[in-house]
Amino acid sequence: MSLTEKELLANVPTKLYIAGKWVDGHGENSIAVEDPATGKTLIEIANATEVDGLAALTAASEAQEAWAKTPPRERAEILRRTFELVKARSEEFAMLISLEMGKPIAEARGEVTYGNEFLRWFSEEAVRISGRFGSSPEGTGRMLVTQRPVGPAFAITPWNFPLAMATRKIGPAIAAGCTMVVKPAELTPLTTLLLTATLEEAGLPAGVVNIITTSTSAKTSAPIIADPRLRKITFTGSTQVGVRLLEQSAKQVLRTSMELGGNAPFLVFEDADIDAAVEGAMLAKLRNIGQACTAANRFIVHDSLADEFASKLAAKMEAMPLGRGLDPDTKIGPVINESARTNLQRLVDLTVKEGGNIVTGGSSVSGAGYFFQPTVLSDVKPGSTILNEEIFGPVAPIVRFQDEDEAIRLANDTVYGLVSYAYTQDLKRGLRLIERLDTGMTGLNTGLVSNAAAPFGGVKQSGLGREGGLEGIHEYLETKYVMIPDPSL
Ligand code: NAD
């Protein structure tokens, strides 16, 4: 039986979680979490200050030694139990994601499946942390290499995938034996709070994961990052904030994982299956209402297909009903807030001024909530402002190209390097593109790359490190090497 919105919100914890207890924050005012489809407050939650942040770090630091010693199988089983509990409550999680973030309920269900998979994947990885043993080249010694947990980590997550961005960090940290302070985004903290209650129910010991929600992120985070008890920072969010956190982390030479912004090129070659490319474009552009780091930001289309691609994409976009995420007919929800919407309008207006054309959409939708029309812009000129910024909304700019070298040059012409997409039916070209596209990930004839079993991450200003896959757990492990003299000497 599905819950009503009221029942759902009544189940969500609203306090901070520190040392295994739900506690009030020291912030003067609570944080009002809004429904972006209506602009109305859903619920008020605790607001942490520096005092609470440091209390959370104390709890993580005190729990670290015992947690590192906890058998990997036990850590794995806590993750596995959490996975089963999230699965059993998947509709509750999906409704909450949709309510606080705005995505259509079908997509929110997809996020629950995807996000929960990190818990299962890392429950499986926890027992596979291994090392090596061998002879030194000159034969006089034995070399032992082991892995051990980095130590207390500080995780900061963005608002756009409230479950998956949390599990992608919490899963490997728990598996590796690290304790954590987690700070979800103030715009969508409810899903992380419900996840925390689920971890508690699954038997996670006190102090292993501590959650602080705050309206003063910079002020509350800085003393945690400056504290010598912290050993690692793992951040997902904008490049701008990531750079600032890297600067702060440098003072203590912290281990860092940075999953930052993107500006994904989506290339369509003259030999592409155009209908497949349009389908892929819908997914790469409109997933999460265009608010994904992996969102296709620049459609780079061969001159011979550009008009057909623009009109087919526009027709599909126009057929997508806008609405509140919980309404089952909704295919596109609102963007996260008014400033995100104003930014979309700014980018569309600038594109037109800089010589592009509006094929469909182009404006905000009046009325309650932060809706923006799905928009296709054609004949966008290389160098236009929109091609250099993260759009983060349902707006698709199309640029024409004449040959492969030009397409690759345009694709790589950005400070970002998270993901690229390419549609071609020529195998050799596909292989050339994999080598020449300067991104951490490429979708070849697909518009979706995210998978818990894959190493997710970018190059250039899109970040450092990888989350998920075999690589994900290594972000929370450090290598220890031991030299032992040859026992026979
Ligand atoms: P953001 O950088 O504004 O905020 C991210 C998080 O950092 C939030 O929790 C915020 O409260 C916190 N924060 C902001 N300033 C801080 C400071 N000075 N000190 C400590 N914490 C601070 O990003 P956002 O708007 O929440 O998310 C959108 C961005 O995230 C986009 O750039 C998107 O590409 C990126 N993103 C990247 C990935 C990835 O895997 N590469 C995934 C999702 C989102």
Beta percentage is 15-25%
In spatial order, strands of the major sheet run: 14-15-16-13-12-18-19
Q: What would the principal axes of the Cα set say about the shape?
A: globular
* Total separate domains: 2
| CATH homologous superfamily (4th level) name of the largest domain | Aldehyde Dehydrogenase, Chain A, domain 1
CATH topology of the largest domain: Aldehyde Dehydrogenase, Chain A, domain 1
Q: Characterize the quaternary organization of these chains.
A: single chain
CATH class of the largest domain: Alpha Beta
Q: Which ligands are bound? A: nicotinamide-adenine-dinucleotide
**Which class best fits the helix and strand makeup?**
alpha/beta
How is the biggest beta sheet arranged?
A: 7 strands, mixed
How would you portray this structure in words?
With 489 residues, this protein is α/β, with parallel strands linked by helices. The protein has 2 domains: 5-260 and 462-480, Aldehyde Dehydrogenase, Chain A, domain 1 (3-Layer(aba) Sandwich); 264-451, Aldehyde Dehydrogenase, Chain A, domain 2. Helices cover 38% and strands 21% of the residues. Strands 14-15-16-13-12-18-19 form a 7-stranded mixed β-sheet, with helices on both faces. It has a 6-stranded mixed β-sheet with strand order 9-8-7-10-11-21, with helices on both faces. Strands 5-6-22 form a 3-stranded antiparallel β-sheet, with no helix packed on it. The longest helix has 21 residues, at 105-125. Bound molecules: nicotinamide-adenine-dinucleotide. Nicotinamide-adenine-dinucleotide (NAD) is lined by residues 156-160, 165, 183, 185-186, 217-218, 221, 236-238, 241, 244, 259-262, 293, 390, 418, 458, 463.
